[in-house]
Amino acid sequence: MRRKQEEEEREKMKRRRKGGGERGGKGEKENKKNRIKNKKKNKNKKKKYKKRRRKRGRRERGRRRRKKGVEGEEEGVKEEEEGEKKRKRKKRGGGEEEKGKKNKKKRKIRKRRKRNDVGVSYINLTCIMKSFFPCLSGPCIPNPCHNGGTCEISEAYRGDTFIGYVCKCPRGFNGIHCQHKCSGPLGIEGGIISNQQITASSTHRALFGLQKWYPYYARLNKKGLINAWTAAENDRWPWIQINLQRKMRVTGVITQGAKRIGSPEYIKSYKIAYSNDGKIWAMYKVKGSNEDMVFRGNVDNNTPYANSFTPPIKAQYVRLYPQICRRHCTLRMELLGCELSGCSEPLGMKSGHIQDYQITASSVFRTLNMDMFTWEPRKARLDKQGKVNAWTSGHNDQSQWLQVMA
């Protein structure tokens, strides 16, 4: 019996799920009717709730209006009472308002007096500070030196002008105010360093001595068939030396190889030595040790390669010792650095510090004898722009000159 009942219940459930059969269809219709009835009931409830809220809002508004009317009457009575009091005070001759105005005026006068007292004390303090501390103003206050330079008072002159101070620059900077980094070329490539200042341990000779690869050919980016220095084949310890003629700060070196008889030659590694007198030499060491520093050289014959010296070298003579060379030790080079003092700074031709009347010449050239195209000495300034942008002498001989009074 139980099994039959369970099976019947299962069949009923299946019919309801599938929505098939008479009983299943009747159940769905009844559910739809119930849903529609519930929706209508909910709508009616919402309408009733809204009506109630509207009625409550009307009642509250009416109460507020009544309260405002009562309060307005009370305020009117109070204003009338206050007006009567004011009339009585005026009849008595004066009142609290006039007293209050007088008190305000007295307070303002007191504040002004206090401010004047503070200003007088401030002026007195400044006068006292200037009388007791006259050194607070001077050529070194504020510090005119840049990049950590120290200012020292001295009787220094720049041309005809008195400066009154000297800047001592830290490592890596130079200039009057330590404004320039010490990394400019010292003049091997440009020709400032003459041929006599460049010497070497030996010179290579080729083609029965007709080709001579002298040390003064070791200038960076030099062109031509013989465009570099090459050491002799039998020289086991070659070197090349530059005499700077005065003690300078050297911060780096640029090396470059060259081609000789169609084959690339260059220095792969080298050492650096320096001296102040050309007799006693010191090798550049690895920082914090006694080992000689071996610098990396070139990889081909044309690409320049730069190495920096940290700390920089302060010396008059600099030597380069090749260690490993490709075929032969062939070199073009340039030294980087700056002056120890500010003596190499521009004096003012370009900037205009040197005025026009300070520049004179032996003669002047005029194009087509026109004053508009006069090549005057005052136009002999570096990087000057325009159609007439230089000085030209009126005669082509060796007696012509240009003079600058700095």
Supply the key terms.
406 residues; alpha+beta; Jelly Rolls; 10-stranded antiparallel sheet; 3 helices; 22 strands; flat
Secondary structure: elements and pairs:
Blueprint: H1 2-18, H2 21-92, H3 96-132, E1 150-153, E2 157-158, E3 161-162, E4 165-168, E5 173-174, E6 180-181, E7 184-185, E8 198-200, E9 204-206, E10 211-213, E11 229-230, E12 240-256, E13 258-260, E14 263-275, E15 282-283, E16 295-296, E17 305-326, E18 330-339, E19 359-361, E20 365-366, E21 374-375, E22 402-404
Antiparallel strand pairs: 1-4, 2-3, 5-6, 7-18, 8-12, 9-10, 11-18, 12-17, 12-18, 13-14, 14-15, 14-16, 14-17, 19-22, 20-21
GO molecular function: signaling receptor activity
Domain EGF-like: 136-179
Pfam family, one: EGF
Brief write-up:
With 406 residues, this protein is α+β, with helices and mostly antiparallel strands.
Report the major sheet.
10 strands, antiparallel
What name does the CATH topology of the domain at 185-339 carry? Jelly Rolls
Shape annotation = flat
Give the CATH class of the domain at 185-339. Answer: Mainly Beta
Judging by the overall fold, what is the CATH architecture of the domain at 185-339?
Sandwich
Strand content: 25-35%
Roughly how much helix do the residues carry, as a percent range? Answer: 25-40%
Number of helices: 3
End-to-end C-alpha gap = 133 Å
Structural class: alpha+beta
Mean pLDDT: 81
Query: How many runs of DSSP E, i.e. beta strands?
Result: 22
